[in-house]
Amino acid sequence: MAQGAAMLTQPDVIVAIIAGTLGGMFIGAMPGLSASMAVALLIPVTFGMSGEAGITLLVAVYTSAIYGGSITACLLHTPGTPASAATAADGFALTRQGKGLKAIGTSTICSMIGGTISAIALLFIAPALSQVALKFSSLEYFLIGVFGLTIIGSLAGDNMMKGLLSGCLGLIIGCVGLDIQTSAPRYCFGFLELQAGINLVPAMIGLFSISQVMFSIEDVVKGKSTVLDENAKNLSGSPLLPWREFKPLLPTIAQSSIIGILVGILPGAGGDIGSWISYNTAKNSSKNPEQFGHGSLVGIAASETANNAVTGGALIPLLTLGIPGSGVAAIMLGGLMIKGLNPGYKLFTDATTGPIVYCIILAFAIANILMGVAGLLVCKQVVKISTVKMTILAPLIIALSTVGSYAVQQSIFDVWIMLIFGFIGYFMRKYGFATAPVVLAMILGPIAESNWRQTLVITKRTGLFQYFLTRPISMVLVVLILVALFSPVLMKIINKKAAPSDPDVLADTAHED
């Protein structure tokens, strides 16, 4: 840990923390620009950076983009990210009362606290959990891959069938390339470039970034645009809450931090589910539940603390077992593997990667603190970014996406891959298919396949079932897989209980991943 702390003084790490935090706030505050899109777009930027600086940039963008979504949620009733949907009703109600800065101040402080607490949990829970991975064989890694694929049910939303179809598409895409044992080409269609498989980076950029640009262009063509509400322009007061108003929020902050971390650890749950569960819990335990939805500071505190606590919680299974705890974490898994940081026990204990991962965790905590300070300093000015016209923003995103995709292998073919996946992502989202399951299946499919085939070789003499009976961890994983298969039904029940009563909030997030 000491070596990891020393890495924080490196200039590239410092720049990554600052740039990632401020950039994430900017992206999160732009309706339609999600944390998933930001992380996918920035992965090519990390190619020329060290491992610690590159991943630090991604985690800083991740946590600050979740917070940034609360800015437009409070000021425009338009959540910048789905995780901020629960904040919109109370935040905008305060803005209409002329207390917009108080709403933003509450969301900023609570986001900072929730994210910092989750970073502390990540620091102490992740190394302990990583020791379990030391006892894993190829069978356990195969079951982990299958367990990770069960996340598709959570990422699919309300339509399970569409989510499964998206996952199947990702599995098929993951099969493209040479067979790992026979070297026979699979789904290459005569293209030599496809023999190495479809590169994850341009595929992710296309699915998340280019598809969102297409949606934005469609909105512009239809005459839709983001225009500041007059109430949001006329902010008054201070973003800092007096102690007498902040003190009653402390129990909610503590409760929501725990909920956020636990939800984050659950594969596929994500910040939006965490914020709604926390919001609903706070409302049910409040002495004044009628105030929720009409400008309740407790409601804002519950939502924003939880959705930022989810970020650290989602990184725990990601770093220790390679199981992403959210859609964004699934993209970050690709970033880790590109940097040669393979999740597991060795990631924490290896003399090379150990200091790097501790540097990333500490930088994650610092990014949350910097996010809070920067948010309080610029909250009155940062709202202006929501007036940037998509006619200006779209060409910039397309240019960055093209450069990023080309930079992976200096190949025009990857640019075509990006464009193709952009159209795939657009039509998938247009007809209600989630894109996150595609990315998840592209990552975990090859892992599950290779370890399954390796397990078959190992158990050729002893027998698979007999070998399975000697592996207690495998038995536990099978039970978890069975439980996870039924979790979407449970999550659907929870979401119905915690769903917002304001239909405008749901409408604002209709095009979000």
What does this molecule look like?
With 513 residues, this protein is mainly α. It is 72% helix and 1% strand. It has a two-stranded antiparallel sheet with strand order 1-2. The longest helix is centred in the N-terminal third of the chain and has 31 residues. The C terminus is likely disordered. This is Tripartite tricarboxylate transporter permease.
Brief descriptors of the model:
513 residues; mainly alpha; two-stranded antiparallel ribbon; 24 helices; globular; disordered C terminus; transmembrane helix; transmembrane; DUF112_TM; membrane; Tripartite tricarboxylate transporter permease
**Major β-sheet annotation:** 2 strands, antiparallel
Query: Helix amount, in percent?
Result: over 70%
Report the uncertain regions: 226-234, 505-513
Q: What portion of the residues fall into strands of 2 or more residues? A: under 5%
Write out the strand line-up for the largest beta sheet, numbering strands in chain order: 1-2
- The total count of helices amounts to 24
InterPro entries: DUF112_TM
Protein name: Tripartite tricarboxylate transporter permease
Keywords: Membrane, Transmembrane, Transmembrane helix
Pfam family, one: TctA
